[in-house]
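Budget justification note: compute hours in this period were largely spent on complex prediction jobs such as the one shown. Inputs:
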Amino acid sequence: MSPQFATTDVASYMQQLGREARRTSSQLRRATSAAKNAALAAMAARLAASREALLTANESDLERARASGLDAALLDRLALSEARIEAMIEGLHQVAALPDPVGAIDDLRTRPSGIQVGQMRVPLGVIGIIYESRPNVTLEAASLCLKSGNACILRGGSEARESNAAIAECIVAGLADAGLPESAVQVVAMTDRAAVGELIAMPEYVDVIIPRGGKSLIERVARDAKVPVIKHLDGVCHVYIDASADRDKALAIAVNAKTQRYGTCNTLETLLIDAPVAGELLPELAAAYAEHRVELRGCERTRELLPGIKAAEEADWSAEYLAPVLAIRVVDGIDAAIAHIERYGSHHTDAIVSESYTLSRRFLAEVDSSSVMVNASTRFADGFEYGLGAEIGISTNKLHARGPVGLEGLTTRKYIVLGDGQIRE
Amino acid sequence: MSPQFATTDVASYMQQLGREARRTSSQLRRATSAAKNAALAAMAARLAASREALLTANESDLERARASGLDAALLDRLALSEARIEAMIEGLHQVAALPDPVGAIDDLRTRPSGIQVGQMRVPLGVIGIIYESRPNVTLEAASLCLKSGNACILRGGSEARESNAAIAECIVAGLADAGLPESAVQVVAMTDRAAVGELIAMPEYVDVIIPRGGKSLIERVARDAKVPVIKHLDGVCHVYIDASADRDKALAIAVNAKTQRYGTCNTLETLLIDAPVAGELLPELAAAYAEHRVELRGCERTRELLPGIKAAEEADWSAEYLAPVLAIRVVDGIDAAIAHIERYGSHHTDAIVSESYTLSRRFLAEVDSSSVMVNASTRFADGFEYGLGAEIGISTNKLHARGPVGLEGLTTRKYIVLGDGQIRE
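Corresponding output:
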């Protein structure tokens, strides 16, 4: 629980958690959906009965955070409230209501040898999750890992340690209520930073690491991990308005993708506009963005049409502003748009606005991003909007899970073979 | 081409290959199946016209290898022959005949917002393949990467360098014949070992590394790589003969899984036998194994039934013999069998022989291996037997591709969203 532990203590503590998680994972693999759902419901009941304790623990974290001068945005992420606790409880019921991915068998086919071959969806095993100040991630992560049949080790931010400990008590009690092993969910009690270093370097005990938080955390974890990392890096998202675009759709999408929320990874950062329609649309767009106080930064051709705005510099094309700032570039057709996205984009989410069948198909096929859209706002790139029912994060990896990651991303598939005594000749 | 290059030369050479591969990968992403198949056919024609040149280049590699004292097994892997060249040509036609995985769209569904969301199968991008002495891997790897729309960088063993260069000439000529970029397949000409170090540490240019070869190569690559590695480690495979097993199936499977080939990763290494049938079956099995000159190493209970055999030591339970040696253990029922597999196995391929519906289902669900079988020989764990049509390797990873990896394992899926102007409220 405290930084006076020597590094070897941290190492042996984390090894102990790892061994326990690995052991438990083989029990969880065989847990029924009914048992997992009962545990989720029991956790919800425990949370509901612990509102006071949760708020008290959280207040203590908040006091410490205020004393150490945390900024308002971080304090807001750290804070629990009656409403946030309600949302956590509701979240548990939602996860319980999702279909269990474990055990589904696809494509069972008979081969010429007579064996039947298929693939069965199974848990990954042990998942390590590393996150920052939001204590509700503790519950979200625990519920998704449990529902997908995985044991998990959760390492939250030290600023949320009392809140996380209080939530962990509810989780563990809920598991016990439902007869599942308490070590299905283990919250790392040591706030020593070395604990993260250990967690990401135990391939014998941990199958995958999911870091959730700022870019520097994710980069550090990805660089040092000895196990696969499902990671989310930049979201430099584009909307390309093609000459054939419907004017109303173009305006609505370009404005919504930028202004519906500024701090999210699927927010528009660079608007590309086809030269033939730039003269008509840019002034209208500029007026709409002005209402939202979005600062525009344009290429030379954009500035000819919108003389007042700032010039975009090279760095603007690859900037993830996460703020009311938008880069705009006039391009000559879809090839130039795709080339721009390929050069400067982050392969997260990119959209075309177009009425052309052929260009829409080309954009879908050729843009190499985790989400590629036609005539829809980039803000739809989200596990809930996609119907995954829940989201542990958005992956910018190409392998395993790409884009929003739901329960299925926490599982894998093994081959199963059903025979009648077949041998190989 | 030679070890006198300084390390910086190797680095800039590999960076150059990487940049070129990345550039080419966006052209390959949009290549039609027809163009890719035409290139495969053209490569086959080029190979057919180059038999002499291939055999001459190979003879020169073989001479050098003999002079440096390579053993007979390695010389055999290195050697080309008319028959092996025929097999390479035939392999190209087989890959051309496989369905193209790229562009398939799954599960396009309409969401409450009105957007349609689906997943489109797309190439990974750039694949680096590192292998040892067999020159035909050059062609196999190139054909599978091309068919799946990926650019590739191939690094073969230095002992095969002239053979690989001759094969590379046919590949590049075939690509040009079909109008595809020659840099779709790049064979690393530098035999400097540092080239491997560079290849596995260029995440900006290489999306995944597939090492094919001995365990030490794979472990080294996996340890040092800065990009995901699709790897194949141990194959410590089990057959568990349950008390309910059909006698004939049990004998056939246990003998076939061990003796059909000794050096393959899906070969049986430890036989587990349920106590009630051990007395009846073990003597019959021992007689069958004796015919194949398989050395048996047994637990105490096995040795009571087969007094002449050697005692298995602890290390035998996790040994991958790749040889006519078999460890045998008498266990008490399926729980003990699964516990043994979990403790000592390598999660590769494990089979139960049983007539029990319930125990078969339990074994399938609970054994956490890339292939889990009922009443079939472990030797079936193979891309061709599973109907993948081709196999780039067998993955012991849990994420992305698990088990035999065919064309689909060289692709990923991106989300596509089709809208009519939808924005998020």
